[in-house]
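Why do we care about 3D structure at all? Because function follows from shape, and shape follows, mostly, from sequence. That is the central idea of this module. The next example makes it concrete: a single protein chain, its amino acid sequence, and then its structure expressed as tokens.
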Amino acid sequence: MNTEPKTKRAHNVSARTFSYLLFAVSAVLITVSLFIPPQGVIDSSVLVAVGELTAMGGMVKMFDSIDKGQTAKFQHGQTSITIGDDDPDTNTKTT
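And the structure:
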């Protein structure tokens, strides 16, 4: 039985929907940019917009996961950032 408050569930659904919407807009934007003049060339401003929309969708999903008590880890080259509890023994989800 789900004991989570109704507003919390609505927030999770809206966050998920918003992140999927941002990913879809990114895909449409980069696809459409291939067919407008000059054809076959994606302008750098389009790439920046797609990157920003995708990053925003990723952040929404990250915050949603953190709200659920999950760990978020980002790694790029030598840099690693962990948000949440990295110890699997203490990282338990309570319902």
